[in-house]
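Q: I'm building a small set of examples for a reading group on sequence design. Run inverse folding on the following structure and report the sequence directly after it, with nothing in between.
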């Protein structure tokens, strides 16, 4: 058996550094984790489809494999509303609308769904069981601006101008459930359904405006349609994918103010483009999901930690760094009380949006190759430690040498920590080190019947690389340093 000292020495840690004892406290419980994910909307899925094997399978494995890849566990699909699938448009299942809302609709399933059905099947084959189908807009014929793009309102929404053609709210609900039905018939169970994307923003691609009161109204139309068509229990309603935390907070507040709408919504969903997380969203038990965010302003970068830009506090230049995303994930799951955290698109090519930094993986179909940004591994550090159904638990941080056993403010250690108890009994810890020196730690994770321990590190030179770790006979004590400007995940597997 190794002594603490020999393991510390093996890890190459200077003896002068303070050692911190990190104890995962499973008696302190917080929110349940639903998972981590991304979208391949806007035809991005085709960039994977167009690769040739074995490269294509390798990339799919990288995204979904929970042993060797990221283990993403949620896929967010865009429910198309446009006449065609070119550029950033996604084609609708109802290309031609009937004259009146109550007339029989004509739906069309093309078996492709802008590439999303294929990626959904890949996800399913890896055990992904959480599928979030989200509409950016209703088709144009249901809206007061007669266009699925360019903002406008759903005809019949309270406060929106009345449309000559009538009230299309129920027709929109039926249409959304029809999308769920097509996936169901073809082997994929959609678990979450959203009817808005950035309802506070008007864009040249699909977009539709709603405020909180309109959303509350529509939830009361949608839920009975879901129930009538047999999805009342299996499909949860998600709302509202606002552009930022502050807008979503207001929309959530307005939905909760409607006592008959509030119990019908299961998940409050938000993006973080226009405002960041400062405290939890209001909730009456609804889970909070961050369903879309990315570094849209940066140039394509694979960097983990841009030391020079960080020294200048240049947050724009570090916005896509892997370490930045490890912190974003940590803030979301702690300060934000999030149950899910989804990056925007997994893949993109150099031609799209000036080869910016909004993707995790740069794909070149012509060369049959791809390049991975290090931030993908920040997601892996969390996604492999917290599987769907895990409960976030407490972590106490104390100076190992201190006689005082009271937990210290973990900020003093320079570490950001988070713990999870998985549904299968596995208990894990993720620790982020912001500092320029390795932080020696002793990790205490008490699992009744522990079978094994794994430690994984990502930093400038490592991508989720397995680290030496051992379970001690007298309880579970594992020794590792959290690498400078790096992330360490420790997972104790239950027998
Ligand atoms: C596809 O639909 C968009 C949105 O309505 C439209 O602007 C565009 O011209 C269409 N493209 C083609 C090739 O039909
Ligand atoms: C995931 O990767 C592991 C290790 O490479 C492999 O054994 C396993 O078959 C993969 N899982 C799936 C579902 O392909
Ligand atoms: C749709 O309704 C909004 C809100 O009243 C209004 O500003 C807009 O002009 C309407 N669009 C059309 C095409 O009527
Ligand atoms: C949220 O609502 C408050 C109070 O009504 C308002 O002052 C604030 O501007 C709103 N914030 C956003 C981002 O809409
Ligand atoms: C955190 O979210 C859960 C739902 O996942 C909710 O029940 C709980 O009240 C939230 N906690 C805080 C502090 O907002
Ligand atoms: C992206 O690259 C361009 C051209 O080199 C440069 O002008 C711009 O500042 C870069 N943007 C960021 C956010 O670094
Ligand atoms: C960067 O920010 C940190 C923390 O806010 C501060 O201590 C430091 O002085 C700043 N550095 C520069 C170069 O502005
Ligand atoms: C911990 O210390 C930091 C920095 O001094 C401070 O910002 C933070 O509020 C403290 N946290 C707690 C929980 O006391």
């Amino acid at each position: 058996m190794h002594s603490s000292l020999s393991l510390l020495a093996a890890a190459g840690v200077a003896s002068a550094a303070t050692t911190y004892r990190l104890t995962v406290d499973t008696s302190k419980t917080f929110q349940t984790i639903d998972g981590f994910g991304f979208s391949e909307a806007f035809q991005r899925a085709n960039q994977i489809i167009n690769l040739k094997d074995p490269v294509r399978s390798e990339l799919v494995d990288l995204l979904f494999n929970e042993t060797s890849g990221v283990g993403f566990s949620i896929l967010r699909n865009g429910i198309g509303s446009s006449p065609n699938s070119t550029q950033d448009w996604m084609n609708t299942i109802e290309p031609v609308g009937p004259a009146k809302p109550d007339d029989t609709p004509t739906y069309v399933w093309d078996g492709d769904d802008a590439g999303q059905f294929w990626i959904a099947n890949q996800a399913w084959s890896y055990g992904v069981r959480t599928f979030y189908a989200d509409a950016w807009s209703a088709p144009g014929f249901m809206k007061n601006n007669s266009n699925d793009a360019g903002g406008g309102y759903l005809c019949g929404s309270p406060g929106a101008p009345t449309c000559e053609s009538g009230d299309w709210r129920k027709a929109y609900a039926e249409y959304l459930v029809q999308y769920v039905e097509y996936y169901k018939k073809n082997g994929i169970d959609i678990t979450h359904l959203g009817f808005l994307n950035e309802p506070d923003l008007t864009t040249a691609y699909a977009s539709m405006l709603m405020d909180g009161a309109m959303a509350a109204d529509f939830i009361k139309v949608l839920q009975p349609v879901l129930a009538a068509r047999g999805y009342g229990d299996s499909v949860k309603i998600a709302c509202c994918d606002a552009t930022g935390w502050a807008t979503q907070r207001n929309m959530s507040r307005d939905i909760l103010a409607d006592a008959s709408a509030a119990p019908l919504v299961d998940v409050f969903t938000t993006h973080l483009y226009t405002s960041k997380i400062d405290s939890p969203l209001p909730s009456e038990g609804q889970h909070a999901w961050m369903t879309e965010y990315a570094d849209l302003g940066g140039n394509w970068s694979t960097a983990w930690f841009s030391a020079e830009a960080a020294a200048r506090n240049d947050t724009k230049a570090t916005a896509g760094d892997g370490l930045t995303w490890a912190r974003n994930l940590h803030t979301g799951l702690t300060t934000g009380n999030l149950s899910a955290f989804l990056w925007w698109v997994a893949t993109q090519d150099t031609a799209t949006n000036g080869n910016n930094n909004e993707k995790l993986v740069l794909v070149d179909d012509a060369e049959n190759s791809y390049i991975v940004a290090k931030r993908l591994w920040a997601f892996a550090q969390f996604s492999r430690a917290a599987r769907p159904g895990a409960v976030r638990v407490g972590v106490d941080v104390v100076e190992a040498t201190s006689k005082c056993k009271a937990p210290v403010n973990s900020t003093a250690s320079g570490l950001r920590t988070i713990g999870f108890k998985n549904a299968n009994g596995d208990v894990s810890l993720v620790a982020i080190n912001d500092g320029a020196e390795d932080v020696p730690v002793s990790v205490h994770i008490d699992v009744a019947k522990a079978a094994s321990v794994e430690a994984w590190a990502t930093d400038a030179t490592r991508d989720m690389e397995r680290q030496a770790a051992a379970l001690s006979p007298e309880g579970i004590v594992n020794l590792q340093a959290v690498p400078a400007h790096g992330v360490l995940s420790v997972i104790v597997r239950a027998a």
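The pocket of 2-acetamido-2-deoxy-beta-D-glucopyranose (ligand 1) is lined by residues 82-84, 86, 89, 149 (CB under 6 Å).
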